[in-house]
């Protein structure tokens, strides 16, 4: 792996960055080769997250319901970050066991297998921000945006402010995600159906615990779900921007009290360049070569999230319409044949390559 990364680095980027990035890439490959079979800090955090969720629901909610709803929201944000970590092959080398550890859907909305599949697609850095190829892009294709009703265009514009992202963003994201998933299931996507069936099985456990064990009305628990998604929205608000250079599309937020709940994904460029590195190792990797990381993404660096709030609380950071990609419809996009293929997520489907692989 290290050799492949070095070769890639030697073929891309300017000469000033090639050697430093090659050095970091080789180090990342060697670290992965030496990675422990079980990453106990992550296992402990998963146990603590679920234990806190149970404890807050059973013991704090009866006496302090408002505080409990807030604390449950924080637990759900952390569990979302742990789902992200498990998507990248943590804390064990067994994908099914990782799924078992984080798959209980206390956040209600996102099936783990769908979260994992879509997120790993997002990690194709050369397609970052593409309105169609990047599942986590907030940009819209110009031609599709022009067909939207005025009220939805208004909401999307508000959603590109920090205030909008943390208030209406969770609702817009949930509705859009569920609608897209229903369409895929109606189109016969068996993997999607399987993911939702497993999710439904988890909800059969979670919903009775919330309603009868915690005695929290489901409608009130949805407030915790919204809080959790709003916390995560602080991180995702500016994670990516359009740049001609793929490396310039991913942010670094240097410090934040929320970094723990984000599992250090505020250092998002470091994660994208070293996606198999465990969350607790990212800060040291960043500190060791801070200036080089900042050079790699062209200075797309903020000191903290408060700086983003000051600049973009009520001002859109990015346009809704993608400034460069998908400006017009592309005939034939709807047909994308797929083949069975193994990936970090296990056995699944992948688009058929445009050209056969070279020997």
SSE run: HHHHHHHHHHHHEHHHEHEE
Return residue spans where pLDDT drops below 50 for at least 5 consecutive residues: 1-16, 334-359
Largest beta-sheet characterization: 2 strands, parallel
Fraction of residues in helix: 55-70%
Please give the alpha-carbon distance between the first and last residues: 18 Å
Tally of alpha and pi helices: 16
- Strand elements, count: 4
Secondary structure category:
mainly alpha
Overall pLDDT, averaged? 88
Q: Could you give the order of strands across the largest sheet?
A: 1-2
Calculate Rg over CA atoms: 21 Å
Content of β-strand: under 5%
What's the overall geometry?
Answer: globular
Task: Please describe what this structure looks like.
By secondary structure, this protein is mainly alpha-helical. It has a domain at 41-242. The chain is built from 16 helices and four strands. It has helices at residues 2-11, 15-33, 40-60, 65-87, 95-102, 112-122, 142-145, 150-159, 162-167, 169-186, 190-213, 218-236, 268-273, 282-288, 290-296, 305-312, and strands at 252-253, 301-302, 338-343, 346-351. Strand 3 and strand 4 form a beta hairpin. Helix 3 runs antiparallel to helix 4. The protein starts with a helix and ends in an 8-residue tail after the last strand.
């Amino acid at each position: 792996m290290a050799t492949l990364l070095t070769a890639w680095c030697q073929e891309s980027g300017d000469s000033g960055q090639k050697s430093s990035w090659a050095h970091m890439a080789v180090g990342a490959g060697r670290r992965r080769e030496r990675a422990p079979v079980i990453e106990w800090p992550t296992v402990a955090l998963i146990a603590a997250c679920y234990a806190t969720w149970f404890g807050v629901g059973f013991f704090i909610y009866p006496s302090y319901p408002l505080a409990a709803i807030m604390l449950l929201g924080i637990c759900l944000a952390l569990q979302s970050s742990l789902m992200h970590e498990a998507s990248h092959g943590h804390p064990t080398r067994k994908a099914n066991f990782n799924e078992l550890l984080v798959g209980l859907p206390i956040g209600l909305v996102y099936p783990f297998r769908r979260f994992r599949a879509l997120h790993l697609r997002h990690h194709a850095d050369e397609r970052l921000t593409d309105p169609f190829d990047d599942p986590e892009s907030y940009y819209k294709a110009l031609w599709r945006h022009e067909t939207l009703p005025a009220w939805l265009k208004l909401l999307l514009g508000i959603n590109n402010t920090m205030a909008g992202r943390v208030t209406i963003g969770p609702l817009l994201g949930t509705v859009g995600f569920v609608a897209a998933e229903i369409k895929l299931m109606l189109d016969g996507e068996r993997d999607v159906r399987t993911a939702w069936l497993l999710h439904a099985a988890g909800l059969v456990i979670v919903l009775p615990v919330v309603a009868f064990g915690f005695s929290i009305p489901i409608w009130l628990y949805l407030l915790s779900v919204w809080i959790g998604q709003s916390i995560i929205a602080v991180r995702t608000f500016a994670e990516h921007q359009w740049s001609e250079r793929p490396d310039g599309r991913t942010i670094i937020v240097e410090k934040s009290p929320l970094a723990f709940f984000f599992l250090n994904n505020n250092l998002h460029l470091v994660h994208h360049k070293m996606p198999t590195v465990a969350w607790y190792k990212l800060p040291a990797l960043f500190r060791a070569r801070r200036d080089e990381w900042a050079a790699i993404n062209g200075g797309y660096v903020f000191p903290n999230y408060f700086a983003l709030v000051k600049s973009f609380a009520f001002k859109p950071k990015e346009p809704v319409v993608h400034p460069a990609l998908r400006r017009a419809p592309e005939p034939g996009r709807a047909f994308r044949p797929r083949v069975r293929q193994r990936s970090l997520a296990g056995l699944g489907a992948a688009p058929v390559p445009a050209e056969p692989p070279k020997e």
